[in-house]
Amino acid sequence: MTIQEKEAFKKNIEEQIAELSAEIDTIKKALYPERGKGPSDKVAHLNFKLDQSIHIQRYEEGTKRLNRLKQAYLKIDTPEYGICKECEEEIAIERLKLMPESIYCVSCMEELGLK
Q: Per DSSP, what are the bridge partners of residue 90?
């Protein structure tokens, strides 16, 4: 991987971290409405609880991905960035463009049974 490619990935990761952080903040606000601004009746309360469970799932997934992106950002200037943790071969550039936090190549990911 060239220095220019790493710089492009670094910028992409920075942008994704900023976007995901803003999304997580929005989700947090939806999870905990201000006092007196919650649901007013039983039906609204049930809908709020359903929405809340979806928000919790989105929050957890977003937080996990944010942590993976931060780890990738810390590793990007090291020789191990873009190298599969399992087979130690280069991860395809196309894969890193879609998921810059990838630590496995597609074949190893499938072999390990990861999604």
A: 83
Check: CB of residue 2 under 8 Å from CB of residue 12.
no
Domains held by the chain: number = 1
Beta bridge mates, 83: 90
CA 11 – CA 90 distance, rounded (Å): 20
Rounded-to-integer distance, Cα 51 and Cα 69, Å: 26
pTM: 0.80
Give me the average pLDDT of each 10-residue run along the chain (115 residues): 87 95 91 66 76 90 96 93 94 92 93 81
Residue 95 is assigned to a structural domain of this protein:
no
Residue type, 62: G
Rounded to the nearest 5 degrees, what angle is found at the Cα of 111, between the Cα atoms of 110 and 115? 30
